[in-house]
Amino acid sequence: MLGDTGVDVHLLLGEDGVAPGAVLAAGLGVLDGSYRPASGDALPLGRPGPGLRVEYARSTTRESRLWVPGGCAPRAPYRIRRVSLEVDRPFGFLAVHRTSRLVLSAGWVADPVEHPRDAAY
Q1: Could you read off the pLDDT of 23-43 as tens digits, one per residue?
Q2: What is the spatial distance between Cα 59 and Cα 54, in angstroms, rounded to a whole number?
Q3: Neighbours of 14 (CB within 10 A)
Q4: Do strands 78-85 and 65-67 pair parallel, antiparallel, or not at all (unpaired)?
């Protein structure tokens, strides 16, 4: 679901050991068309990229979902593709104006704070 502020935030997680500048440059490359992003439906099952996991899961609805770590769903009759992201190391971000695709802010989180998986939101 898109927010109503007109700004999208892209999280950028590279392979372990890749320099921050290279990760940010790859994120900018997606925005300028140098790299083509893949939708969650096109990703193969398993671990197709840094921090990503694609698997089948039970759901109360038929729609595929992007899953917040630590969340849980009740036992349900539908089998869906679930794409989850675990950000467990430094990462970059881009704040992008949705209409113009102008990067408003870019940065690197060198020391992310660990969020307990079972914490209530």
Answers
A1: 999 999 999 999 998 888 899
A2: 15
A3: 20
A4: parallel
pLDDT in tens, 58-96: 888 877 666 575 555 556 788 888 899 998 899 999 999
Alpha-carbon distance 98 to 39, whole Å?
18
> 27: closest CA among 87, 90, 92, 74?
92
Q: Do residues 118 and 103 lie in contact, with contact meaning Cβ atoms separated by under 8 Å?
A: no
Cβ atoms of 97 and 5 closer than 8 Å: no
H-helix segments, 46-100: none
pTM, two decimals, is 0.75
Distance between CA 91 and CA 20 in Å, rounded? 8
φ, ψ (nearest 5 deg) of residue 82 = -115, 130
Q: Where are the alpha helices (DSSP H) in the chain?
A: 20-32
Instruction: Compute the residue count for the chain.
Output: 121
